[in-house]
Amino acid sequence: MYHVTERETRCIDIDPKEAGIAAGRNKMMENLTLTEQADLIIQVLEGKGLSTEKGKYAHLLTTYNTGVRCYLFGLTPTICDGIQLAEKKLEAGKGLQQLKLWRELSNETHFTDRPREQRQRRNCPV
């Protein structure tokens, strides 16, 4: 993966196996419809769903992806710290709220035709 900023471009090696995520496809998750996958992720973000194997795996994927995102956004110094932060947010029931905030911020700052200097900037709290 490449981390590109205004100052530099860095190559970052990310290995999901380090977080307990097996390489390749997961048959259990592969057989879910898109709606079932979305419902499962919402359950994870609401702090639910850990009673099933699918829910546990979705929780693992969610915290890993969020940890990587926190690291890339500069919110945590390492991916592991990002994963721990994601765990704390999910335990506090703030996962869904955080997703909504990130969507809002992404729409305002990154996916727009407005010149960079005209974009509204806000701190992205975690």
How is this structure best described in words?
It is a single chain. A hairpin with a 4-residue loop joins strand 1 (2-4) and strand 2 (9-11). The longest helix has 20 residues, at 53-72. It is built from five helices and two strands, in the order ββααααα. It is 51% helix and 5% strand. It has one domain (2-14, 32-118). Strands 1-2 form a two-stranded antiparallel sheet. The chain is mostly helical and 126 residues long. The chain has helices at residues 27-30, 34-45, 53-72, 79-91, 95-109, and strands at residues 2-4, 9-11. Mean pLDDT is 78; it is low at 114-126.
Overview in brief:
This protein is mostly helical and 126 residues long. Helix content is 51%, strand content 5%.
